[in-house]
Amino acid sequence: MQDGRGRLVAEVAEPLGKATNNVAEYEALLRALEEARARGADEVEILADSDLLVRQIAGTYKVKSPNLAPLHRAALDALAGFRRWHVTHTPRSQNTAADALANRALDGLPVQGTLPCAPDAGAGLRSELARLSGRLKGVLGVGVKTVWDGQEVFLEPDRPFPTASVFKIPVLFELLLQAEEGRLRLDDAVTVTEEMKSPGSGVLKELNSSPALSVADLAMLMTIISDNTATDILVDLVGKEAINRRLASWGFSVTRVPMSCRELLFELAGHPKGPYTPKARLEVEQILKTRERSFAGRAYADHDNDLTTPREMVRLLEMLVRDGPLSASVRERALHFMGRQQVRDRLPLHLPPGVEIAHKTGSIAGVRNDAGILFVPRGPVLVCAFARDLADDQAGAGAVAEVGRLVHAAFV
Questions:
Q1: Which of 31, 59, 355, 404 has the lowest CB atom count within 10 Å?
Q2: Taking the CB of residue 171, how many other CB atoms lie within 10 A of it?
Q3: Where are the beta strands (DSSP E) in 300-396?
Q4: What is the pTM of this model?
Q5: Can you give 42-66 as a three-state secondary structure string?
Q6: Which of 74-78, 100-104, 183-187: highest mean pLDDT?
Q7: Residues 95, 176: one domain?
Q8: Domain total for the chain?
Q9: Which residue from 299, 54, 67, 280 is spatially nearest to 162, judged by alpha carbons?
Q10: What are the angstrom distances between the C-alpha of 6 and each of 9, 43, 140, 162, 264?
């Protein structure tokens, strides 16, 4: 098995006992589809050196053998579970890896390159995370779930955590869903004016010109560099009420977005009622650079704040890898944005080169967060880490980075 970029995902070789070649070919197809589904795949391309199997699956050959009929039906049922599939004939001379695996199984030899997951990985990870939490001067919440077998590991699963810019994930979902529903267009242009600019992270607030950017470009800036101006333009476009209605309809009881970036940062600066003028924005920027650390106020409260829990965030992330409220095209587009994240000082910091992760970070004083999907050979791992009430923000970011390393080590 290989992923879409040609990287090895798994090798499986199992003896079947006494059986015909045709039975073995169908059994191999069913086994491959089972492994693909366990890894969260929603589309597959099967390369098989059995011309008979390929033609029977395509319907150009009838299934006459009573031994193959139930296997054929089972294969069609399994394929129907994928959004898109294709079965192609390939000569045995070009299918040497699979042929070699078959020979190893026949000879009773061990398979090299099989990629199992240790059955106690979750227990070991839980202990490591508990030790990490005990060393942190602050509160650490973690959620982890493997897509292929549903293992879950949590710290503080149901405690509310301020999301900071992680709230941009539900904003992105709502934006893409409204585009799919025809309520807005991603290629529409928005001219960014001085009055639209928000304090905090991003580049748009630093520009002297008034650029015209597409809604899709604003979504990219919101996601990959956490641009607050781009975010607030999109929040105004889709509406906070729509975002929160959608979250409630999905059954989330804590995850909400009552404040935009501008409202959150003005709240932090002690100016919750504005006015939201360009001059006030510059004043807020200065206040946030010099204010003393305090965890009082709405921005740190467990209600009427931009909040989530580790358990709810894992559920939200799971929508990106399973059929459900998000269509395949929305899932693909959201992962496209999140996979280009440029803030790499948290979950990805200690990952080996080339490891893929699609994620979104978040920060305010005393809070360091990250949430996303880590792609390991076995399949996707849903992971979020939230650190709040921090005495040292750098230590909080370091703890989130260590969560990424521990999760990767547990499942690879």
A1: 59
A2: 25
A3: 307-308, 356-364, 367-376, 379-388
A4: 0.75
A5: CEEEEEECCHHHHHHHHCCCCCCCC
A6: 183-187
A7: no
A8: 2
A9: 299
A10: 9, 15, 37, 39, 44
Tokens 């073995």 locate to 24
Q: Which residues of 127-149 are buried (b: 16+ CB within 10 A; e: fewer)?
A: ebbeebbeebebbbbbbbbbbbe
Spatial CA neighbour of 175 closest among 263, 236, 227, 252: 236
For 372, list phi and psi in degrees, rounded to 5.
Answer: 180, -160
Domain assignment present for residue 259? The answer is yes
Joined tokens for residue 130: 């508990």
Cβ–Cβ < 8 Å for 168, 316: no
Reported as a single tens digit per residue, the pLDDT across 128-164 is 999 999 999 999 999 999 998 899 999 999 999 999 9
Domain region containing 313: 121-411
Please check whether residue 2 lies inside any domain of the structure: no
Residues 230 and 147: their CA atoms lie apart, in Å, by: 32
| The domain boundary residue, chosen from 50, 79, 106 | 106
